[in-house]
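Input record (one chain):
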Amino acid sequence: MAPRKEKKDQVTGDQGKPNLHLGQMDGQHSGRATDISANLHKAVTKANAAKLLKEMHERGEIEAKTAGKQSVYHAIQDPKDAATPEELVAMDKETEVLREEISALKTKQKALQLTLANLRSTPTTANLRESTDILVAEISELRSRLVPLRSGKMSPVSAEEKAAIDRGCADAERKSTLRKKIFKNLWEMTCDNLPEGTNKDELWERLGIEDDP
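The corresponding structure, as predicted from the sequence alone:
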């Protein structure tokens, strides 16, 4: 069985004045009697709210604008709170300065993002050590393979070995072409999103990228 909604007692007459003030202050900068009554969850009836608002307006406690049968009530605005023309000009200048600062910060952000991307792509010390170990092992293997060549004990290359070498060369060439194409596409995408004032040729030199012979 659904729980019953708690029924709030409605107040009338002068009893509703404190609630009415709360209703105006609780996010109601302006509104009709119906709006303010609803904001108070109908603790003050619409009719009583209309009566109290009218009385408050007549006493000069609030202001009202009437259009037809509808009246919208709002707090009295102090002319001293209005900004002077000089203050408006100053605010416009401050807004323009902030816009320029935002634009400069966005440009700086793009440059920092590019720098961060370059740093992330730079091999770490652990990566370099691993690569060095691999190269040392390859050099050792190549040197061991040179021993029989230098001693003159070289066996002739069979047709099967030559075919395997040719296949390996063709595969390496295909991979090299594919990697060049991928790099070209990535480089063009990077250049399309460079911060304003960044020269792609200078960036190429700064990154130490070298073209294949």
